[in-house]
Specification:
The complex is a heterodimer of chains A (93) and B (135). Chain A has 93 residues and is an alpha+beta fold. Chain A has helices spanning 28-38, 42-46; strands spanning 3-6, 20-23, 57-61, 64-65, 81-86, 89-91. Chain A has one domain: Ubiquitin-like (UB roll) (Roll), CATH 3.10.20. In chain A, strands 2-1-5-3-4 form a five-stranded mixed sheet, with helices on one face. Chain B is built from three helices and nine strands, in the order βαβββαβαββββ. A six-stranded mixed sheet of chain B has the order 3-2-5-6-7-8. A two-stranded parallel ribbon of chain B has the order 1-9. The chains are: A alpha+beta (93), B alpha/beta (135).
């Protein structure tokens, strides 16, 4: 068993078009580092230089936005589903 | 080209008017690959701002999961500008993340007339498209 990661359309260029990939890790941070091994460049779209989650990318552990859990330090385990959705946002400026 | 039924066009306009002066936002879902907008979903603007909008993250998750289960996709993603023209701004362009969607922009800056325009936004490039409202 592994952790299922659902990938939004615009990030599928990093996964050869796959809408779902698998990874391992005991925290979200470790999971993203694991995914980077096979999908180079993906981590940078999710994590900013300073080390936090990118502001306009939503990451969910099962049904919950990880911003309300522990962000990148959120523990994950086999059988979990992590979903990535770019925020839908914009405005006048 | 965006082809949209009259009632859905009018729902977008009504939502924008109702939320003015805050920006209104939402989705019209349709069967995946059909390019047909069918199901109107008004979304909460989590920013509640006259110059910015953002879908609430939990609401967005539920809707995206629902569309996936229904084999639907977001055919239209709409939002309103309340004091500027109905044209995608720099932030609209940088956050556009659904390359297949029609980005509808409505402006409520004029009390008596609502601007309603549609665009494709892919790789940072904006292309306006004609809108056909079907009665």
């Amino acid at each position: 068993m592994a952790i299922e990661v659902r990938i939004p359309t615009i990030l599928r260029t990093y996964t050869d078009g796959a809408k779902q990939v698998e990874g391992t890790g005991s925290t979200l941070d470790e999971l993203f580092t694991d995914l980077e091994q096979r999908h180079g460049g993906l981590r940078d779209r999710l994590v900013e230089g300073g080390g936090g989650l990118r502001r306009f990318v939503n990451v969910y552990l099962n049904d919950e936005d990880v911003r309300f859990l522990s962000g990148l330090d959120t523990p994950v385990k086999d059988g979990d589903t992590v979903t990535v959705l770019p925020a839908v946002a914009g405005g006048a400026l | 080209m965006l082809t949209i039924p009259r009632d859905l066009h009018d729902k977008i306009v009504a939502h924008a008017r109702a939320d003015h002066p805050d920006e209104a936002c939402g989705v019209i879902a349709g069967p995946a690959g059909s390019d047909r907008p069918q199901r109107f979903i008004a979304m909460m603007n989590a920013e509640r701002s006259p110059t910015f909008y953002r879908f609430d993250s939990a609401e967005q998750f539920r809707l995206w999961r629902e569309m996936d289960d229904n084999d639907e996709e977001p055919v239209v993603i709409y939002h309103s500008h309340t004091a500027t023209e109905a044209y995608p701004s720099r932030t609209d362009i940088s956050y556009a993340s659904e390359p297949e969607a029609h980005y509808v922009l409505v402006s409520t800056r004029d009390e008596d007339a609502t601007e309603f325009r549609s665009y494709r936004i892919t790789d940072g490039v904006v292309t306006e498209e004609p809108v056909t409202v079907v009665e």
